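User: Could you check the structure of this?
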Amino acid sequence: MNQLTVTTSNGRSLTVYDAGDPDGRPILFHHGTPASGKPFDPHIAFALEHGVRLISYDRAGYGNSTRHAGRAVFDVVRDVEAIADALALERFATWGLSGGGPHALATAAGLPHRVVAVASVASIGPPDPTDLDLTEGMGEGNIVEFGLAREGEEALRPHLEHEVTGIDGLDVPSFIAAMRPFLSDLDAKALDGELGTFVLNSFRRSLAEGVDGWVDDDLAFVQPWEFELEDITAPVLVVQGRQDLMVPWSHGEWLARNLPAAESWLREDQGHLTLFVSVVPAIQEWLLHRF
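Assistant: Sure, the predicted structure tokens are below.
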């Protein structure tokens, strides 16, 4: 895996990860909230075996990627365009998990001539539809977090800074305990092992320089995304698990209904984090078949 720095059109820096088969078909991943874009080892192994050039990045404000204060979801398009230009990607597929889902959809809407397909996985829905309650069905932790995001940065930032206090001293069992307000039983069980170590390290890496990225993601999620779902012309896959307390089932159902000609995989037996382990290989296969 290569790690590089890409400079955006307005002079910010983005940390980019280039893994898998360097001659493979490119798939660009948008990480969740909060998280690092550094890829999961089993995903790299899949990429090497299946001819995928697996590209990911730390969104603005995470890790060493420069903050873009006040960003909207759609602003990610210029960042992805800078990455694609730097890596000479003419055409690529993209997918996003959780908080990365809206950013993947924005990429497809904003770069229609470059994105061959997009997958939205356990993605939060937009804040403005009258037929979708953003927080209904979420775990207690997310309800509090989004309530503060609606109040603004001054209310949200101290809460998130408190949330990350002591993260460097956690082991996986204590991390699971701290995450419990956000987790279904299924997802808590999934964290007890390789995935837990990966997610904990991802949190630490992404928040090492502060909570700017997390703050800006949350603020963006409670504001209009600044693009229309109808702008997406590429094939779309919507994936959602019923046993998800971070992003409820209703978000996946809403996106499946409202994305043009979307294919949907609404899985009764999946949670939020379990999708990242057990369903991602099938998602990447689906994307590969759209090249």
